[in-house]
Amino acid sequence: MNEPITYHSQGLYVIIENREIENPTLGYLTRKDTEVKNKTPAPIQITAEQILHEARERQEAEIRPPKQKITDPTELNEYRLCKRKDFEDLIRHVRWNIGIWIKYTQWEES
């Protein structure tokens, strides 16, 4: 009897019993599984440009918060407090991102 074949490839151990040795990096797919079965051209050809155009048409509009008009000092203080909290939460979550620190300091200077 044939013993199972064990070989190592790119950190993966594969045991194959009485079969052809398959490529472990393909997730046990054989060449036959990955071949294109129907090679005839489609009756209607579509370009990449058409695909991108359709994708843009189907996208939903970007939702933006309404612009705020600050009329008195209390609203300004509330806005600044909220903005500081947002920046500090971002910094707490992504402390290593220097870009957030820079944006926060630029905002504080303005």
UniProtKB/TrEMBL annotation:
Keywords: mRNA processing, mRNA splicing, Nucleus, Repeat. InterPro entries: Syf1-like. One of its GO terms (biological process) is spliceosomal complex assembly. GO terms for cellular component: post-mRNA release spliceosomal complex; precatalytic spliceosome; Prp19 complex; U2-type catalytic step 2 spliceosome. It is found in: Nucleus. Belongs to the crooked-neck family. This is Uncharacterized protein. It comes from Clitoria ternatea (Butterfly pea).
